[in-house]
Amino acid sequence: MMEQMRNKAAKVVVWILSVFLIASFALWGIGDMFQGRSTATAVAEVGDTEVSPTEVQEQFRRVVDNMRARLGNTFDSQQAVQFGLLDEVLDRIVNGRLVSLEAQRLGLGAGEAQIAATIRNAPQFRGPGNGFDANRYHAFLRQERMGEDTYVGIVRDEILRSQLTGAVVGGAAVPKSLVALLYRYRNEQRVADVVTVPLGDVSSIPDPDPATLAAFHKENAGLFTAPEYRKAVVLYLDPAERAKEIKPPEERIREEYEHRLPQISVLERRKLSQILLQDEEKAKQAAEALKQGKDLDTVAKEFGGGGPVDLGDLRQQDLPKDIAEAAFKAEEGSIAGPVKSPLGWHLIRVGKITPGTTPSYDEVRGRISDDLARELAVDALIKLTADVDDSLAGGTTLEATAEKVNARLLRIAAIDSNGRDRNGSPVPGIPSDPKFMQQLFSSPVGQLGILEETAQGGFFLIRVEESEPPTLRPLDEVRKEAIEAWKRTQLSDAAKKKAETVAAAARQAGGLAPAARTAELEARTSKPFTRFIRDPSSPVPDALAAALFKAKPGEIVVAPAENGTAIGELKQIVSADPASNEDERKQLQSQLESAIADDILGQYLVALRKHHPVTVNRQALDSVVSGGNL
């Protein structure tokens, strides 16, 4: 059993490295597992380590860049936050840190040779001769805006993580019988004759008489019922409003400016290219040839078998420490090295140097002041909640308490569960946090709710004055809508009645096609279709397809269609044979194994949080977007 788990774990290692690591870093993020306490305000604490704002910011920037490439340059960081991508980035980092800490606790390790072999054997970096292609490797680094030092660290962490997670999910096997059963279910096809009885023209239907319309209005009350409305009084402590009243001290703004310099400064960049050699002696000979005046291209071909590799326009922190020190000490146009790394010996040519820039205090003072004002406002509101509690505990009304603490008092005449008034317009000024609507519609009438904090750092307190239950709107108010709905119902009922008549005739005649001709309708034979995938031009609507997959050959069924009623006769069942498409069967098996592995891994991560507690600083996380130069 243990041997099977080891073998399975080895496969999982390859899978994790090739899919999670190279393709998307989707589960773990790319944080350094050995990062300990930092001096900056931590976004999260995982065990005895911290997740820094810079780490989250770098990964979030990568996500935003990838989304811009797909959706266009108008996509910005604020939209990414609204889509939940900032929280996803933090989750990835936290998950990676949890597994890394556990791997560290268990004493797992990865040597330089193992790291280098993992990179060299990655399929993404193989060239035409199936060997390691340095050009592809560095193109990947440029695309991901990642330094080699960072990537080597990622590989090291992933090896450690995969050693641990491989053992955890190593038993996620799927029985062949289950794969075959699901394959047959998903790929079974059916062929049917289909007839559609279309809806008629609404204008051909006369208006109903008053009694008929009144009865229709009553029988279909759900179509004409107004939602529940609530009347409420709300005390709202809004940090955005309070921030407008706060002017942070100048010395505090300057202190924050100094603190943010590493994040808002643009570091020096250098255009670098290199020769990567595996033999130290060859590297020394190449360096000597360069000193004697030969150019890098010539030396690269002579000693490396190809041209120099373009590393791109890099910052010092993008490179391994030793390479970075050599490359950033050298002058523009000169050669640095040879320098050793886990991948071999590097000779680096320094091209154009772009000096770093630091925004002046005056350039960013306004933004920093606004951020600090908001932080101070949140802090002030937290302290103010004690005054609110004391005031209410002393018998002061909600209205008087709001005036006492200078809070906004909202008087909502009528609001539904979607935050709209009787006219269907959004009610202005209410908190955007979903918890507000949840509490508003769950609180008993006449009772004061609890003081609730919003995700933005504000607070609200609700007293529901009245609850107006869902009410049938008077016929005079909805007469036009009721007449149109009645006419549509008449047309639908007529189409359904005709379809049932044709279906009955088809059963008597022994087939749908002759009955359709008699009714002056067209019968079409469908192409083979599955339960889940159909040709957009197929005459088989979803409801009819579902009915046909429950039918026996020759059976005739009726189902609603988008613009009428459909009739279908099942002509043929085409069974699916897993042996006919081995690639798809293997893909399905892989999907099932991945799903089971993900479920096991998810449970494992939950368990790890008990051993390595996780706390998140929401304010610091939000400042990743507002405080950096994304």
Describe this structure in words.
With 630 residues, the protein is of the alpha+beta class. It has 4 domains: 2-174 and 583-627, Triger factor/SurA peptide-binding fold; 189-225 and 475-574, no CATH class; 229-247 and 372-469; 266-354, Chitinase A, domain 3 (Roll), CATH 3.10.50.40. The protein is built from 22 helices and 17 strands. The strands form 5 sheets. A 4-stranded antiparallel beta sheet has the order 14-3-16-15. Strands 10-5-12-11 form a 4-stranded antiparallel beta sheet, sandwiched between helices. The protein has a 4-stranded antiparallel beta sheet with strand order 7-6-9-8, sandwiched between helices. Strand 11 and strand 12 (459-468) form a beta hairpin. Helix 4 (85-105) packs across helix 7 and helix 18 (475-509) packs across helix 19 (512-518). The longest helix has 35 residues, at 475-509. The radius of gyration is 34 Å and the shape is flat.
Quick rundown:
With 630 residues, the chain is of the alpha+beta class. It has 22 helices and 17 strands. It folds into 4 domains: 2-174 and 583-627, Porin chaperone SurA, peptide-binding domain (Triger factor/SurA peptide-binding fold, Orthogonal Bundle); 189-225 and 475-574, no CATH class; 229-247 and 372-469; 266-354, Roll (Chitinase A, domain 3).
Notable features of this structure?
4-stranded antiparallel sheet; 4 domains; 22 helices; alpha+beta; 17% strand
